[in-house]
Amino acid sequence: MAKSEKPKILVVNDDAASLLALTSLLEQWAAETNYEVVTARSGQEALRHVLTYDFAVILLDVNMPGMDGFETAEIIHARPRSADIPIIFITAFVADEIDRLKAYQRGAVDFMFTPVIPQILHAKVSVFVALAMKNEELKRQAHKLSQRTTELTATNKRLIREMEERRDAERKSHAKDEFLAMLGHELRNPLSAISSAASLIGLPGTGPETAARARAIIQRQSQHLSHIVDDLLDLSRAMSGKILLNRQPTEISAIVKGCYETFRATGRMLDYTVELDANTGWVHADPTRIEQITSNLIDNALKYTPAGGRIDIVTRVEGEEVLITVRDSGMGIGPDLLPQVFDVFVQGSITIDRAQGGLGIGLALVRRLVELHGGSVTAHSDGPGTGSTFMIRLPRSEAVVQEVSAPHLDDEAGGMRSVLLIEDNDDGRDMMASMLTSFGYEVRCAADGLQGVSMAAADLPDVALVDIGLPGIDGYEVARRLRADAGTRGIRLIALTGYGQAEDNRRVLEAGFDVHLVKPVQMDELLEAINQAVPHVVRA
């Protein structure tokens, strides 16, 4: 029954006169009692009305041809939606107890005999109409309550979600704060060592042995700073999907052995028992990134394993996968941290006396690089003090035979002698010029882009080392102007920049550079790039 509808009374009687008499009586009180009257001349017609409307009460004649009142009532109450409609049987015959029992069994609530007493009919109908209206009001209230409950449930879920998001944001913020604090610590340590070593070299009375040791410290700590920056940049590129893999057939055991030898040569493994079991396995991967993954896992094991501990490094083929496993006997991982160990900014307990230090981003980088190769990485630990196991799974590829030749680096500059260095950083320019001069190159320097273009046109060097972030005009414009001039377009152009993403490499090459080198540049890498310089255009 819709909210705007009045309760309905169904009167069923096959006798037209009786039907008219009942209907007339009921319609006298319809406006006062607020109901509507619907009529039917047979049981079949009554059933059709019941399928269409909800009724407050049905006045049903017992004696009808075809389908009598008892059968009609039974069918009405057999239907779930109309099962609760009260039925008052109306009959002109005196009903015995058997008839009354039969009527009640079929859902009758009362009996009335004709001729009907109007006051009694009015009283009974009014009761059922009022009851119907009350039931309808209860239904509306129940519906509103259900809607309100749904709204409150949704609000509660939203509040719980917002609380969880807030707690998660607070955890991430706290983790970032710890990460930034650790980053500051990790940067200050090498910077302090570099500053102290540089000051020591300049002190009066510093002997050659002390100066050599100070220079070694500066070189070692500079490499450490470079490693920190590389890890940060690589993680940022990996998370944003900007790392481009140089995939090729790669033999895993050779890379793992190389990483092992590097750590052993630097003395990092002196205080540990390290066992290497490297079995041949081929993957289609970027060798540089696989080396980075392996180095990070070994470095992680060394950081979190006390001196005297054991580290096992294993590679093997298992079905269609190649596995790299690094197992240590170190401090282990607690059950609360284990599910998050590969998340960004997540790190184990940070203590000021931890020997190896670190930023806690190595494992996050490992996972992303492994995923870029279509592999997976898992961590296992039985808890604090039980050690940890990290396992890399990479898709196996077919073995190939490849010839590996070491790059040749000329000992002397040969015929390529003149270098133009365009760099706006005074210290960087002076140090780079001094290094190149010590290797026998004739070096001229420019402090900005316009000066560099002018000097290149005047001196026609064999090679120009060009910083990208220059005042006046940037390195890209320097390259474009040199390539546009017939006199300078044959100069070999090498870009030196702190930007190392794929997009930066593309912009460098489009501007006209021959080589893109990312700062800080290793001297052997720079010398190799210079020594490959061959004038490819005959100058006018």
TrEMBL record:
SMART domains per the UniProt record, alphabetical: HATPase_c, HisKA, REC
InterPro entries: CheY-like_superfamily, HATPase_C_sf, HATPase_dom, His_kinase_dom, HisK_dim/P_dom, HisK_dim/P_sf, Sig_transdc_His_kin-like_C, Sig_transdc_resp-reg_receiver
GO cellular component, one term: plasma membrane
Membrane topology, as annotated: Multi-pass membrane protein
Domain spans labelled Histidine kinase: 182-398
Sequence positions bearing 4-aspartylphosphate: 61, 467
Compartments in which it is found: Cell inner membrane
Coiled-coil stretches noted in the UniProt entry, renumbered to this chain: 128-172
EC number(s) on file: 2.7.13.3
Residues annotated as domain Response regulatory: 8-129, 418-534
Protein's name according to its UniProt entry: histidine kinase
